[in-house]
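Subject: design request, 122 residues
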């Protein structure tokens, strides 16, 4: 079964329900418009960051860029959205310690380091 990008992210966030019907399981996504708007915004942010790191040539059309991101960086978009959701409320912290739990986040740029930029040969 094929899922939309938002649905794939909701699955990774455990934001879905499994319904058993006639001996088979089906996944449903209970309405959560607030979460879907947030995920949609983070998807756009991730795509813009990939555009920036990729340095597309000026002759590339928006449709070509979108196809390239979907074809080559689909999972990276998901990773960036999940990263942004997981560090929400911890902006600009390099480490966090509370009640014996220590957290240190990787830099977002290390995820974006997987983007291969275009280059020109002189």
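Subject: RE: design request

Done. Sequence follows.
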């Amino acid at each position: 079964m094929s899922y939309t990008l938002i649905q794939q992210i909701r699955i990774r966030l455990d934001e879905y329900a499994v319904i058993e019907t006639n001996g088979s399981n089906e996944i449903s996504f209970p309405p959560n418009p607030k979460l879907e708007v947030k995920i949609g915004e983070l998807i756009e942010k991730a795509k813009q960051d990939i555009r920036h790191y990729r340095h597309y040539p000026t002759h590339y059309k928006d449709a070509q860029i979108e196809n390239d991101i979907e074809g080559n960086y689909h999972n990276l978009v998901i990773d960036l959205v999940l990263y942004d959701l997981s560090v929400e409320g911890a902006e600009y912290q390099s480490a966090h310690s509370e009640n014996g739990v220590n957290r240190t986040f990787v830099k977002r740029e290390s995820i974006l380091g997987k983007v291969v930029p275009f280059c020109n040969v002189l």
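The first strand starts at residue 17 and ends at 21.
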